[in-house]
Design goal:
The complex is a heterodimer of chains A (320) and B (289). Chain A has 320 residues and is an all-alpha fold. Chain A has a domain of 212 residues. Helices cover 75% and strands 1% of the residues of chain A. A two-stranded antiparallel sheet of chain A has the order 1-2. Chain B has 289 residues and is mainly α. Chain B contains eleven helices and two strands; from the N terminus they run ααααββααααααα. Chain B has a two-stranded antiparallel ribbon. In chain B, α1 packs parallel to α5. The longest helix of chain B has 32 residues. The chains are: A mainly alpha (320), B mainly alpha (289). At the A-B interface, α5, α11 and α13 of A face α3, α4, α9 and α11 of B.
Chain lengths: 320, 289
């Protein structure tokens, strides 16, 4: 069979046995790698494939996190179920945003600003709802059990986050080869032309935003139960909006493995340099470096690192 | 509702709105010439605020006096950003234009954090706490000065754009890039200069804010978004619209505190923004593009 699948299988096998030899700290870095690859992939569904730029995806992360935690604390509902409630809610809000954006034909920067506005309004409103912890945020009680989505140690989180990432790859792969995925790419390349050829662009834009919002919000539920603390500024804030889009763009926008490649490069870099510089009292330096790297990548490899990776892997993968 | 309070808020809104207008003027200028949205706008302004703050703390020069020097420093910063980053991305698709500027903002914000820490700093300037009575309402002197200077600077920039050769070149490049190239204008230099001018404008606005509000690296985002809102209210690339939009936003935010907690005033401005981009995307006063 295709050598690409063999290579991917090998990588997955390595990732599956990796926890046996990693320290807790290293596991944490891998979890963040998978988590951001997953979020980046979810964002990629909308922006990478249809070309509508969202700079407000933290909105869905926050909805997923807050909904599942609220349902768990108030009604004792397992986050495994609450997660999907959050997903549905995020999709509905995504559809509402999409309805406004696509019905009114907002393009480019206007759509970007609409997404920022939605995220910021939600952040401000959540900051004023007492039932959601308002300004102080919500602390989660630690009751480890499978039902509670809470575990001792990092290993279960490692496998869950890896599972999330692999699932997202499968979903996007299926999407890519489906009719809907092809229509989405047609919209990205030229929305008017796609419409002229009879593609119901509104329908497929709405489809993309609903899937993207749903997927993103599941990530939020995971993150909430991993760090045990929710705050409106970290769950809905601008810095998450930015964090979320860096990796897929650096890796390769609108490609299946772009978000993963981007996350595997940027996340360890950010986590390690953050810890290193914070020790030396240089809080913030890691983000400066991070910013410089992303600018360099966009300036000199605008199609993302994946293009170079593919070129480099070609001799290995194409020998038959 | 207390009418004296409402009047007070109205006047405060107008005064702050003038400064918003000046911030947005810089953003609109950059958009008008290059067609890019400067996602680092607030961060550039905060750099100007810190420059002004340190000149005051170290040399004892009042922010109103150091304004010209600060604008010159930030002009160089803006020129450098355009030269190093923005000139290379002008032909990119929009998604790829957003990221380098967002990253530029991230870099500036964290340089400020690294150098000066996260604490809020508010210098005790000469007029910081003075206030004057305007009829039945009392207003801070520093806000009145900020408003007057904002209007004055806006006027000077219009004069510059109308009367000087450089200003005419900028307007030419903004009206029609290809046409400007054809008549022999070095558009790359115009780009650098325009970004520099836009940055200097927002830095000047920052200086005016130094006596009014505490400085911290984290206030930058709010000003970036406020500048977007104002520019969209006024119409993208419409320079007089930026000033008018600033006043609208200032008044809307200020009056909203009559019915909402002050921390929710941005909900009003974002809602206003959404309504405008849906129903009048060219802005209240018409725009470019």
């Amino acid at each position: 069979m295709n050598r690409t699948y063999i290579l991917l299988g090998l990588i997955l096998a390595v990732l599956l046995v990796l926890p046996l030899m990693l320290s807790k700290y290293m596991l944490g870095i891998f979890i963040m790698m998978y988590y951001y690859a997953y979020l980046g992939q979810s964002w990629n569904v909308l922006t990478g494939y249809t070309g509508h730029i969202s700079l407000g995806h933290a909105l869905y992360v926050g909805i997923g996190a807050y909904t599942s935690v609220f349902l768990a604390q108030r009604y004792g509902l397992s986050p495994w179920i609450g997660m999907f409630a959050g997903g549905v809610l995020a999709s509905l809000i995504g559809l509402f945003l999409g309805f406004l954006g696509f019905r009114f034909g907002l393009r480019g920067v206007y759509f970007v600003i609409l997404t920022i506005a939605f995220a910021e309004i939600t952040r401000l409103i959540v900051s004023h709802i007492d039932a959601l912890g308002s300004f102080t945020g919500i602390f989660l009680d630690f009751n480890p059990s499978f039902k509670n989505f809470q575990f001792k140690g990092n290993i279960p989180y490692y496998y869950i986050s890896l599972g999330f990432m692999v699932m997202s790859l499968i979903v996007v792969r299926i999407l890519e080869t489906s009719k809907a995925g092809r229509f989405m790419v047609a919209i990205r390349e030229d929305e008017e032309a796609a419409k002229a050829l009879g593609v119901n662009t509104f329908k497929y834009n709405m489809f993309a935003i609903a899937v993207s919002a749903f997927m993103t919000s599941l990530g939020g539920c995971f993150y909430a139960n991993y760090i045990f603390y929710l705050h409106p500024n970290t769950m809905f804030g601008m810095s998450l909006n930015i964090e979320l889009i860096l990796r897929p763009i650096v890796g390769g926008l609108g490609t299946l493995f772009g978000p993963v490649v981007g996350s595997f490069i940027l996340t360890p870099l950010s986590e390690v340099s953050r810890a290193y510089f914070a020790k030396g009292g240089m809080e913030g330096l890691h983000l400066v470096i991070y910013g410089i790297i992303t600018i360099l990548v966009v300036l000199f490899m605008p199609k993302g690192i994946i293009v170079y990776l593919k070129k480099w892997l070609k001799p290995i993968l194409s020998k038959e | 509702m207390d009418s004296a309070l409402a009047l007070q808020l109205l006047i405060q809104g107008i005064l702050l709105g003038g400064v918003y207008g000046l911030i947005a003027l810089g953003l609109s200028l950059i958009f008008g010439v290059m067609g890019v949205i400067n996602f680092a706008h607030g961060q550039i302004m905060v750099m100007g605020m810190y420059a002004s703050y340190w000149i005051f703390v170290l040399l004892g020069i009042d922010p109103y006096v150091s304004l010209v020097a600060v604008a010159a420093i930030i002009f160089v910063l803006g020129y450098a950003i355009q030269y190093l980053v923005v000139n290379r991305i002008l032909d990119y698709p929009e998604a790829m234009q957003v990221l380098p500027l967002v990253s530029t903002g991230l870099i500036l914000e964290n340089i400020a954090l690294l150098l000066w820490g996260p604490d809020h700093r508010s210098p005790q300037t000469a007029l910081g706490l003075d206030s004057i009575w305007m009829g039945p309402v009392m207003v801070d002197t520093s806000r009145v000065i900020a408003f007057s200077l904002a209007i004055l600077i806006t006027g000077l920039i219009f004069l510059f754009l109308k009367k000087t050769t450089m200003g005419k070149r900028i307007r030419a490049a903004s009206d029609n890039r290809t046409g400007a190239v054809l008549v022999g204008i070095n558009v790359d230099r115009i780009n650098n200069f325009s970004f520099g001018l836009g940055a200097a404008t927002t830095a000047a606005a920052g200086c005016l804010l130094v006596p009014i509000m505490p400085i911290s690296p984290y206030i930058a985002h709010d000003f970036t978004t406020a500048a977007f809102i104002v520019v969209i209210l006024g119409g993208m690339g419409n320079l007089p619209g930026a000033m008018a939009g600033g006043l609208v936003l200032g008044v809307a935010e200020s009056l909203s505190t009559l019915v909402l907690p002050a921390t929710l005033k941005q909900v009003v401005s974002f809602t206003l923004l959404i309504i405008i981009i849906l129903f009048r995307p060219q802005g209240l006063f018409g725009g470019k593009k």
